[in-house]
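SAMPLE LOG
Freezer: B-3
Tube label: C17
Construct: single chain, 392 aa
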Amino acid sequence: MAATGTTAVIDRNGLAALVATLVAEGRTVVGPTVRDGAIGLDVLESADELPFGWGVELDAGRYRLTPREDGAAFAHCAGPQSWKAYLHPQREQLWSARRGQDGVPVFTEHRPEAPSYAFVGVRPCDLRALAIQDRVLAGGRHPDRGYQQRRRGALLIAAECTEPGATCFCVSTGGGPAADTGFDLALTEVVDEDGHRFFVRVGSEHGARLLAAIPHREADLTTESMARGAVDAARDRMGRTLPPVDLKALIGASTDADHWDDVASRCLTCANCTMVCPTCFCTTTEEVTDLTGDHTERWQRWDSCFDLDFSRLHSGPVRASARSRYRQWLTHKLSTWHDQFDTGGCVGCGRCVAWCPVGIDITEEVAALAAERDAKATADARTAQGVGEEAP
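STRUCTURE (predicted):
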């Protein structure tokens, strides 16, 4: 059996065999597929459902499918969904209660058997996002047991990026188009005159067993060179970039910046950015009762700091303005997240840029905050210098 770190090459038949093997193991295989005018995530029965021959064109507030002549399966950037929709579902029952004898309530914890997931086509930015979600939801003093159960057995088949989108900026957040850790198998797609194939790297013992179970051949230098070269080239073709500054310090020192008013004048507070973000994790709970009053259920569902009720106390919401809610989101994502989890909360996938209805671009907003800070520092320095020159 191949060892961790082994490299190999599979063709399209090998990819089909990989998905078929995962299905035969009884796993719920999830991967990218074309649906509803986008490349989204769905349960796959075979590799034929992958988006062969489709790419995307996108920009701030804009997304559309485009056909490709090379028939590539993974030549597209992150779509509107992330894998958190499966590991940290949008709505989940926590417990139920019924009226028992003598009116005493009887509580039942809702703990269904978790699917055995296999995620195919996980982008490197999403690998980093899953690692962050693991830190937030599976670690600490109060882990989410549902997340832990679903995550524990999930297999991750990564697809390295060779076609970054116009809204991608993963390099700016400390990542990149290469899959470094956290995968069972990593695939890099190569399509040239020698055919359609995938350079494979083994990242775990289970990945090694999977590779042994499907048709493959030893990696050749040409395919490896083409694969690594395509990933390296993608690193230099990011569509966007964050300013090369200490983001934690910048955002933390910008609470009173005038630029928040500019963002607020455009922001709809619709929460699209938090819904598509692969690391946002906020939830609320709601009670659902029947008409008799004899049965009730508690459900957990996604929530957002853009929701006016998210910070509501008895006297009203803590953050009533669009300015304060957008500032809260960006400050937590890029600054205070470090204090809580020793990492930033953004992986540079660009989803929040592409799926914002008015095209608000996080990279442009951060650059504007940096420019305002620098302009203020220059003005303060000039003022201080002028005062010093006039002093006796």
